[in-house]
Write a structure and sequence with these properties.
Helix 1 packs antiparallel against helix 2. The radius of gyration is 29 Å and the shape is rod-shaped. By secondary structure, it is mostly helical. The protein has a domain of about 100 residues. The chain has five helices and no strands.
């Protein structure tokens, strides 16, 4: 089989070019997949950080609320301290909700947290009125949560 010089030159130029373009496309696809997975991981870490901030603020509020509830608000500056800790927790909730608004793909995974956060004003009212049964209601909410998810 005899080929003309033009066909040989075209084959010599186009064959390596096609191979290089195929390899470039393959590596581009691989790197894009790695980038997408890394981006997902970063967003999960951001969500985890928002949840951690909420838990830290909730722990601080819970501690000061215990003092406030036991002393029935008579411990020095307990009302002011509880108000400050509640403000910190509200700010953490606001940051968490802002993150969810920007990343709606996490909404289905955080429904339980959203449900528990929605009950917070009710629990705070019970604490502020020094009703004794709020402890029982919180315990029941936690037991219901555990039954639903574990």
């Amino acid at each position: 089989m005899k080929m003309s010089l033009t066909k040989l030159l075209a084959l010599a130029i186009w064959l390596p070019s096609i191979i290089l373009m195929s390899l470039s496309g393959f590596f581009l696809y691989e790197n894009f997949n790695k980038y997408s997975n890394t981006n997902k991981s970063v967003k999960y870490l951001e969500l985890t950080k928002k949840l951690e901030d909420m838990l830290v603020a909730l722990g601080q509020e819970r501690g000061t609320t215990s003092i406030y509830a036991v002393s029935k608000g008579k411990y020095p500056n307990s009302t002011k301290i509880v108000a400050q800790k509640r403000l910190n927790f509200n700010n953490a909730i606001r940051a968490y909700k802002k993150f969810l608004k920007e990343n709606p793909e996490f909404l289905s995974q955080t429904k339980v947290v959203d449900t528990l956060v929605a009950k917070l004003p009710f629990v705070r009212k019970k604490i502020d009125s020094f009703q004794e049964n709020y402890k029982k209601e919180i315990s029941l909410n936690i037991i219901q949560f555990l039954k639903m998810h574990f």
